[in-house]
Automatic annotation (TrEMBL):
InterPro entries: Carb_sulfotrans_8-10, Sulfotransferase. One of its GO terms (molecular function) is sulfotransferase activity. The lineage of its organism: Eukaryota, Metazoa, Chordata, Craniata, Vertebrata. This is Carbohydrate sulfotransferase. One of its GO terms (cellular component) is Golgi membrane. Its EC number is 2.8.2.-.
Length: 163
């Protein structure tokens, strides 16, 4: 395709026929993570200048420029545009990646992260509880609205942002 090797070519820049043909030749894997967990990770990595999680969330909500670290997944990965072959949920990486690696004919055991899924889930459940309690009712409602399409598109049933 004429722009296939151009730098930073976005999928949306290809016409429908080109997209369909190009994407048909790939195995498409989407890694998704609870949007509230993404916010926590972004805050803990120091990507915001705020001293508290609550003020960081307010910074995100007030921001006119959506940063990729907290931008809704639906706007980043275009699940309506791309028919993904696999959707891998953070927190189930070890189990789901093992399946993907076996399907690709690769040795699953040696390539997987050491941390177990239950440890990841427990850690984020604890962090979510602590950080969610810092937020005002209005911030909680605004975050739920901000991530409404992610919450509708992906099964984040235990997310603190789910209604």
């Amino acid at each position: 395709y004429r722009r296939l090797h151009a730098k930073e070519t976005r999928l949306s820049e290809f016409n429908r026929t080109e997209r369909k043909a190009m994407l048909g030749s790939y195995t498409k894997v989407l890694f998704v993570r609870d949007p509230f967990h993404r916010l926590i990770a972004t805050f803990l990595q120091g990507m915001g200048i705020s001293p508290s999680f609550s003020s960081f969330v307010q910074e995100v909500l007030d921001s006119r420029e959506e940063h990729e670290a907290w931008k809704p997944l639906v706007s980043l990965c275009q699940p309506c545009l791309v028919q993904y072959d696999y959707v891998v949920m953070f927190g189930f990486l070890r189990q789901e990646l093992g399946h993907l690696l076996r399907r690709a004919g690769l040795p699953a055991g040696s390539l997987l992260p050491e941390l177990t899924d239950s440890q990841v889930q427990w850690t984020y459940r604890w962090l979510s509880e602590q950080m969610f309690s810092e937020l005002s009712a209005q911030q909680k409602q605004q975050l739920s609205h901000f991530y409404r399409w992610d919450l509708a598109a992906f099964p984040f049933s235990s997310s603190y942002l789910s209604d």
